[in-house]
Design a protein that fits this description.
By secondary structure, the protein is of the alpha/beta class. It is built from twelve helices and nine strands. A nine-stranded mixed sheet has the order 1-9-8-7-6-5-4-2-3, sandwiched between helices.
Length: 284
């Protein structure tokens, strides 16, 4: 834990404790199962990118729930994906989903995830559902999304102000929304709600390339985070503030994979996902 005045610069040494290699006795279930509820007819690629990133981060199984076309694309890219609901240690919900028109295939599973008590990652279109989640929850807004979330609880602020003072506003968001908050930006801030003593986890992860400001990279981050949450689900249930260092580790993997994929030039989201295994190996 850190005080609100002293965010920690998260690095590979700190992240090492939050990645895990499978042991001889592990199977696909003990390594963690994550359910991805993402993508839509308008944004089918979000499903592919989120599933791809989760699979490459290292879990025993990725389940995917979505409409027919995103499902087809997911299976073409990652045929090992299981496309029926079932046992799961964690959920990633929201990438590429329009909250006003959630696919029928996804509605029931979103409700099941919300009431399951399992850890949940909320991204993009489902960020506003945090109050419905009964288990530990982490949200992944950028500044504009953060402003909208704060407005929903009566705190008026514009996205430019949040972008200027992310250290302050990520903490205010975590406290007001009562969830671990990963505020995306050129420097990503991760904060847990303050405890009764006013202490909290707050870490920063700088981006090493601005080429990462491109479509789909946020979906990759959501997948990385979902995989790490599934791997550490038992600890999170016992210690919800563990979502702070886990989210910081996901941001570090994402930033480092982006830097490696870029090599100083343009990068696309799928290239970032393909670099994840080597970054995880380095942290191990």
């Amino acid at each position: 834990m850190s005080s609100s005045l002293e965010p920690v610069r998260w690095d590979a040494r700190a992240a090492h404790a939050w990645v895990a290699a499978p042991a001889a006795g592990d199977d696909k279930y003990s390594r963690g199962v994550v359910t991805v509820i993402a993508g839509s007819s308008h944004y089918p690629g979000a499903a592919v990118l989120t599933v791809e990133a989760a699979a490459r981060t290292g879990v025993g199984m990725v389940r995917y729930i979505g409409p027919a076309e995103p499902t087809r694309l997911v299976l073409e890219r990652r045929p090992e994906t299981v496309v029926v609901a079932g046992q799961s240690q964690a959920f990633v919900i929201g990438s590429g989903i329009d909250p006003a028109s959630v696919a029928p295939e996804q509605v029931a599973e979103i409700e099941r995830a919300a009431t399951s008590g399992a850890p949940v990652v909320l991204d993009a279109g489902m960020l506003g559902r945090a109050s419905n989640i009964t288990g530990p929850c982490v949200i992944t807004p950028h500044a504009r999304e953060c402003a909208r979330l704060l407005a929903s609880v009566g705190i008026e602020v514009d996205d430019a102000t949040i972008a200027r003072k992310p250290q302050e506003w990520v903490e205010r968001a975590a406290d007001a929304l009562v969830v671990t908050t990963l505020l995306k930006g050129a420097v990503t801030h991760i904060a847990t709600p303050a405890d009764e003593r006013g202490a909290r986890f707050h870490a920063v992860v700088p981006s090493n390339t601005h080429w990462m400001a491109s479509a789909g990279t946020g979906d990759v981050l959501a997948g990385i985070l979902g995989a790490l949450v599934a791997t550490h689900a038992q600890r999170i249930l016992a210690e919800p503030d563990a979502l702070g260092p886990i989210a910081a580790t996901a941001a570090l993997i994402h930033a480092t994979a982006g830097e490696k994929a870029s090599g100083g030039g343009p990068v696309v989201a799928l290239d970032v996902a393909q670099q994840i295994p080597s970054i995880v190996a380095g942290l191990l």
